[in-house]
């Protein structure tokens, strides 16, 4: 690896390959790269992918039986984008996407970007009060949904929030509670006052196709294109607003780190939800940026469906959260699935217990498992390992600094950069930092400094190669007798016991007026882990009052 002097005796690390030579002297890293930032829009990126491989499969939705080549996807995207213009949406308007992983999610992710419309990612589990807040907060002019998915009756909930829909003309809704909403687009049925998806697709006549083409000259890669709701530790949803530039570059450099730029026949299995950055950027956007094929095993998460998809589609990569990987390695019939094609994967979305990483490698054969870290506000990935990292780094860190990104670890009280290996708050600066929290200047100023640093609220430490360890959230830290205790450390210790598959430690004030840790065990542990064992283990680890809130969680 090449080492570059940054400034003031702070060093940058060249990140085209895993850093070998220690380059840092303090907890500041700059991911220098020989590859320039991408300066393109999402629509342009998709067009280039189509030109390279028009007949290659872009997406497969196994549960719905949908398969689309890049050329077919592009045709559908243009038709949907023209249809959105035809029903009255304009560049800069907001459109909510509310539902599970279906083809329409990918379709509207690219169609909105092509039309300059801002896609609002709405959690498919939202209840009426939550979806009303989200739509009002960002002023959604339209929303796309299924009639129903499992117990989520989307159309009924919209009618509950907005009873005026029943007597409205599609495209001309006038609602007291949702004053900006004009259109509801239903994917799979015809409902009073709402467009059917087929109507929107057919509305995209040649006139609007031409309007769409003319619009491309007015769309800038700095334009906002996606709003993702994130609550952090406050519980109040905030709309992290991301641009083409944020998303395109993060997808490109994550894929580059994973080897997408040179590996042939890439086929990614994507069970993570598209409404989250992990799925929409690390997955969906990589379709356009890297021209790869993505397989969606099911609309909602199903462990067995994922394993079956890995086998039947001969997937080479698997994406998942630690909880998903725990589910897969604990499937009683795991051995019956042929996972020989799966050589790589990404584990991200929450802290990854080292014992889980080891079992994924040994039990699933995913030898090139890569750990990633980021936040929605950072588009999302800021640290990511290399497939070639050794086991210790895979288990103990969340990877090293990403290309074109700066990171520092600071003392939360003073703001000073801490020495290597010392814990502090992780702060990020670079192309990846969001534009703003939509319509919330005060919250934006709270988390982004005037110098452009984003305050993650995460506690971590950095080594001389810029590998990062995450120890928890500042607001989750337990302070007892002047000692800082990090729940993540206790959780990692519990995971070393063979009978404990998954654990979560939480802070609360106890009846004896002292900070305590509540230990939650997953259902896999039920009947096999005595409560007393957890008390004994934690008391060995740290002098802390321990109270068991529950023997297991369903």
UniProtKB/TrEMBL annotation:
Keywords: Ligase, Lipid metabolism, Membrane, Transmembrane, Transmembrane helix
Transmembrane regions listed in the UniProt entry: 529-553
GO biological process: one example: fatty acid metabolic process
Molecular function terms, GO-annotated: medium-chain fatty acid-CoA ligase activity
EC number, as in UniProt: 6.2.1.2
Catalytic reaction annotation: a medium-chain fatty acid + ATP + CoA = a medium-chain fatty acyl-CoA + AMP + diphosphate; octanoate + ATP + CoA = octanoyl-CoA + AMP + diphosphate
Enzyme class of the recorded protein, top EC level: ligase
Top-level taxon: Eukaryota
Residues covered by the AMP-dependent synthetase/ligase domain: 48-438
Record's signal peptide: none
Family note: Belongs to the ATP-dependent AMP-binding enzyme family.
Function: Acyl-CoA synthases catalyze the initial reaction in fatty acid metabolism, by forming a thioester with CoA. Has some preference toward medium-chain substrates. Plays a role in adipocyte differentiation.
Protein name, entry field: Medium-chain acyl-CoA ligase ACSF2, mitochondrial
Organism: Sander lucioperca
């Amino acid at each position: 690896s090449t080492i570059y002097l940054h400034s003031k005796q702070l060093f940058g690390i060249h990140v085209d390959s895993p850093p070998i030579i220690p380059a840092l002297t303090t907890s500041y890293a700059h991911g220098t790269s020989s590859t320039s930032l991408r300066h393109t829009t999402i629509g342009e990126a998709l067009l280039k992918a189509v030109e390279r491989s028009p007949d290659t499969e872009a997406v497969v939705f196994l549960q719905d039986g949908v398969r689309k080549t890049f050329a077919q996807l592009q045709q559908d995207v243009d038709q949907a984008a023209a249809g959105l213009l035809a029903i009255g949406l304009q560049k800069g308007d907001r459109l909510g996407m509310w539902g599970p992983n279906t083809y329409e999610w990918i379709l509207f992710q690219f169609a909105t970007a092509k039309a300059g419309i801002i896609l609002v990612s709405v959690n498919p589990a939202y209840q009426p009060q939550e979806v009303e807040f989200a739509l009002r907060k960002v002023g959604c002019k339209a929303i796309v949904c299924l009639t129903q998915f499992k117990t989520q009756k989307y159309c009924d909930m919209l009618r509950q929030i907005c009873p005026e829909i029943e007597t409205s003309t599609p495209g001309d809704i006038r609602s007291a509670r949702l004053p900006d909403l004009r259109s509801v687009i239903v994917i799979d049925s015809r409902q009073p006052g709402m467009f059917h998806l087929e109507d929107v697709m057919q509305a995209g006549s040649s006139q609007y196709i031409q309007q769409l083409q003319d619009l491309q000259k007015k769309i800038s890669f700095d334009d906002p294109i996606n709003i993702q709701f994130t609550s952090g530790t406050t519980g109040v949803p905030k709309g992290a607003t991301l641009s083409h530039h944020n998303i395109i570059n993060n997808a490109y450099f994550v894929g580059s780190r994973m080897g997408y730029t040179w590996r042939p026949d890439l086929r990614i299995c994507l069970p993570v939800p598209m409404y989250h950055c992990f799925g929409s950027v690390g997955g969906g956007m990589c379709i356009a940026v890297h021209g790869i094929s993505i397989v969606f095993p099911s609309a909602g998460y199903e462990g067995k469906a994922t394993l079956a998809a890995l086998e039947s589609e001969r997937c080479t990569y698997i994406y998942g959260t630690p909880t998903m990987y725990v589910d897969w390695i604990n499937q009683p019939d795991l051995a019956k699935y042929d996972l020989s094609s799966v050589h790589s994967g990404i584990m991200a979305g929450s802290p990854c217990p080292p014992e889980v990483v080891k079992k994924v490698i040994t039990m699933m054969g995913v030898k090139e498992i890569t750990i990633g870290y980021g936040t929605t506000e950072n588009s999302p990935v800021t640290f990511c390992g290399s497939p070639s990292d050794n086991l210790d780094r895979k288990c103990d860190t969340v990877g090293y600094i990403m290309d074109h990104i700066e990171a520092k670890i600071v003392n939360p009280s003073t703001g000073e950069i801490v020495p290597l290996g010392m814990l502090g708050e992780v702060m990020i600066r670079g192309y990846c930092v969001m534009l703003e929290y939509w319509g919330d200047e005060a919250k934006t100023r709270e988390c982004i400094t005037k110098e452009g640093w984003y305050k993650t609220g995460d506690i971590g430490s950095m080594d001389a190669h810029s590998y990062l360890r995450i120890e928890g959230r500042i607001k989750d830290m337990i302070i007892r007798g002047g000692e800082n205790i990090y729940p993540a450390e206790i959780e990692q210790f519990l995971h070393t016991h063979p009978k404990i598959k998954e654990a979560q430690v939480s802070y609360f004030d106890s009846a004896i007026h002292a900070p305590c840790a509540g230990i939650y065990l997953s259902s896999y542990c039920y009947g096999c882990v005595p409560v007393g064992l957890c008390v004994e283990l934690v008391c060995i680890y740290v002098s802390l009052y321990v109270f068991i809130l529950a023997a297991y969680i369903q």
